[in-house]
Amino acid sequence: MANDMMVKELEQVVVRFSGDSGDGMQLAGNIFSTVSATVGNDISTFPDYPADIRAPQGSLTGVSGFQVHVGADKVYTPGDQCDVLVAMNAAALKTQYKFAKPTACIIIDTDAFQKSDLEKAAFKTDNPIEEMGIRQDVIAAPISQMVKDCLADTGMDNKSMMKCRNMFAVGLVCWLFNRDLKIAEDFIREKFAKKPQIAEANIRVIHSGYDYGHNTHSSVSHTYRIESKATVPGRYMDITGNKATAYGFIAAAEKAGLSLYLGSYPITPATDVLHELSKHKSLGVKTVQCEDEISGCASAVGASFAGALAVTSTSGPGICLKSEAMNLAVIMELPLVVLDVQRGGPATGLPTKSEQTDLLQVLFGRNGESPMPVLAATSPTDCFEAAYEASKIALEHMTPVVLLTDAFVANGSAAWKLPDLKEYPAICPPYVRPEMKGEWTPYQRNPETGVRYWAVPGTEGFAHILGGLEKDDKTGAISTDPENHDLMTHLRQEKIDKIAVPDVEVLGDRDDADLLIVGFGGTYGHLHAAMDELRSAGKKVALAHFKYINPLPKNTAEVMKRYKKVVVAEQNMGQFAGYLRMKVDGFVPYQFNQVKGQPFLVNELAEAFSKLMDK
């Protein structure tokens, strides 16, 4: 009977795993996304978890979710709503049902829908399905009890067995989408390499979930398959933005022939970069967890002076604290990459949520005229490219550089083709040359780029001192001369202005669009998807998305003035729109602003942009 089931081919599907923050929903989502990426599907993920260290079990505020969008072709977002909702308890069903499509399949663990569970989730009756008016297919299974039965002979205690519940849900979803469990087994064995008994227990449970679906058909008439249409050969992996960022720094250091130093202080959602880089001592990576944010940045300034590729990582609150040391790198003209993984603010705000509210802070949030290049990664996989490019700019132009990501792209993941470093551009720091000996001074510059030459301590004949006080352009000695300060201020600005960045590309109806959508950083996928939706409805729409913020691409003004209507969409109150107005004379765009700590919804974007076009 099971062999006679119909298998439907799908172009894409969205699955959302949800449960208590201790139910392992992030791991469940990661396993399913890894399985999908490994077979060649494109993916986009959205981990959505509470900021509580450990919310009360079964509470509405303690629900953790992980949404993954799997596609045969390119997918740009984790999806507005899901085709499959896994709700491991009553609170998860209550809070996550709003993300389910009207046609969604819902999977619940009936053992977690007891009277006390329903009361915690604020249900008024003992029939939550009926109370919520759910009309979709519901696979209601006693998952907890089946996990206990599956592991009864292992000698595991009840608490340990219950930690495997998430694997049953993964197995059931893998059955529903005809996934090969071999990839999941490999993932689990690697994840629990130091605890082989735990690994084998989880593997037994994931097979139990798969077999349950296979043997009972789980109340559905067919299963699904998503074939990959990827045409680019190569090795692929599922990678998060934070891990891709770490790899980008490692690649840049290797390309430049330098050791990599990270001076950091743990802060959500940037800490994973510190964790990842700390694993790679064999590659010459040095990581220091400092006592506070400013010391993390100051130690990186010192490492830069000593000749390393220096990085410091943080989020918005840490940028506030690092600003003094960042400014030290500006006046000393030392290479430094400052990674800002943006989160909800102000103050400690929403630590686990995503915004784009640090833009003006990293552009202008320091005392004095302190120009600093700013880049913004556009996706989890672009974090690798952006980290490499930020490092290249810092090293070749002797300047601190800010790399903006955000919680959405940093914690999200996508299918990533492993790069060939031979294809990446060389990184060539402007080192002093032997013939300069005897005539070199610390602020001697390349006349074409305005970049000062780098003398690494220990280079014979190039001993020097740098510091936070203004220096004389000619001698490098401390100077309070007003004309010299004016000159040095202009030289530091001109050096940044001369950095060559690619033109901003216009996608979609670039020649005759009735509306140009403009954005920056991590909103790329949602804005691209909104453009695609509007174009499929017959509207003329284009997209200009910015990765390089300072300096802006040279064609920025021409692009902004080419279209009758321009809307700048961003997850703040209009910071990028204001910056563009400052840089482009006479530019007055429409604005779409949300500050919810959540990614944009494509349908809301498309509706708002459509109304603008109808004005």
UniProtKB/TrEMBL annotation:
Annotated keywords: Oxidoreductase
Pyruvate:ferredoxin oxidoreductase core domain sequence ranges: 513-584
Signal sequence annotation: none
Molecular function, one GO term: oxidoreductase activity, acting on the aldehyde or oxo group of donors
Keyword Ribonucleoprotein: no
NCBIfam families in the record: OAFO_sf
Protein name (database record): 2-oxoacid:acceptor oxidoreductase subunit alpha
Originating organism: Bacteroides muris
